[in-house]
Amino acid sequence: MSSSGLPHADLTPAAPGARPTGSPSGSTAPAAPWTPAATHGGPAAAPVLTTDGRAAAYSTSQPSSAQSSSAQPAFEGGPLAEEGLVQLLTPTGERVAHPEYDAYVAALTDDDLRAMYRDMVLVRRFDTEATALQRQGELALFAQALGQEAAQVGSGHALRPQDHVFPSYREHGVAHVRGVDLTDVLRLFRGVDHGGWDPVAHGFHLYTLVIGSHTLHATGYAMGVVRDGLVGTGDPEKDTAVVTYFGDGATSQGDVSEALVFAAVNQAPVVLFCQNNQWAISEPTTRQATVPIAARAPGFGIPAVRVDGNDVLASYAVTAQALERARSGGGPTFVEAFTYRMGAHTTSDDPSRYRSSEQEEYWRRRDPIERLRAYLESRDALPSQFLASLAAEGDALGEHIRTTIRAMGHPSAASMFEHVYATPHAGVEAERAWFESYESSFLDRPGHSEGSHR
């Protein structure tokens, strides 16, 4: 699957020719850059109080025709509020108009939509196969992305080849869109590799298990992109943006706050994409925040937007706008994709201990794949031959995953010292020497053969 942003077809139900300012088409200028000079009041500005006395989050910049208030809404309500979410497809698959974001999907064709549908279906098949393999003892662990396919595939399709992604450990959909063989993702969960793919070749960094740390890596990389002169040139094949994905739980980590500080003051071309799946392992979002997660960003000087993360079209549109702003020199954007983790945190987790089956059923009725399928069917854009071909492709993917994983074998313990650094490192070499000495000590004992102590 190509990692480039999809071409744009008219899906908007509005009158033909109506195109909001800030459209990504070549005939319209990109969104105006947001700069610290445009900050409403600056860092010392007093917060606006809500009726209940709490400080309300508000826009960090004066709204303009190219950067309307929907990108920096005045958030109200608790962290699970669904009001104000950008939505282009209802849970039943009906297309709804949006004055700002219709333009970003206006040229998507039925082929483009089927490509998104295909990617979501295949990623879910991957999820199912990987979970089964872990239960069979073929993987040490697996982190499911079940229910989050729209947020990942939609945003992934908005990327260009030169953009770079810093994932956490659940972004299987983005990895797939960026052309990563998903069996390479499982090398990490089987414990045979530190990563498994070339980050440069795919514009997709290795998974990060340390919660939130990669948001700093992404921000630093984005600052480097600016220094390389790859932002705001006007060349669509050169201008580059960075995206980092993290969960709602990661926003409680200090690393994410530090990344927001550096991204804001350096106007880094980074999209901070929070998949709010409502659970940090067993801890609900309501135990981490009293307002929507995105409401934190304006306090750092970063515009924010909340989107229905189960809506692949809205996820695509919101990310496309944020990437456009970043590439043009407009700085960072915080995106909160409000979704739900239908599976467990990892396969070592039992979500039935902390959430109800009624809640799971509520979100199952909002399945992102079924939503897009309903929309495509309403357009007579899901022919039987396409579905049959996709089913066969899914079966082939399942066989590929099972065969590849079972053939991986087990690496030598000493391989853990390889590829830690790009060049030889004295500390690592000292640890390698100690480990080799430790290993050989078992061979000196009668009755012990190599590997018998493991």
TrEMBL record:
Signal peptide: none
GO molecular function: magnesium ion binding; oxidoreductase activity, acting on the aldehyde or oxo group of donors, disulfide as acceptor
Entries under InterPro entries matching the protein: Alpha-ketoacid_DH_E1_comp (IPR050771), DH_E1 (IPR001017), PdhA/BkdA (IPR017596), THDP-binding (IPR029061)
Pfam families noted in UniProt: E1_dh
Domain of life of the source: Bacteria
Organism this protein belongs to: Cellulomonas persica
Stretches for region Disordered: 1-77
Keywords: Oxidoreductase, Pyruvate, Thiamine pyrophosphate
Gene3D superfamilies tied to this protein: 3.40.50.970
Descriptive protein name: Pyruvate dehydrogenase E1 component subunit alpha
Cofactor: thiamine diphosphate
SUPFAM superfamilies: Thiamin diphosphate-binding fold (THDP-binding)
Domain (Dehydrogenase E1 component) ranges: 118-382
A biological process from GO: branched-chain amino acid catabolic process
Residue ranges, compositional bias (Low complexity): 20-47, 55-74
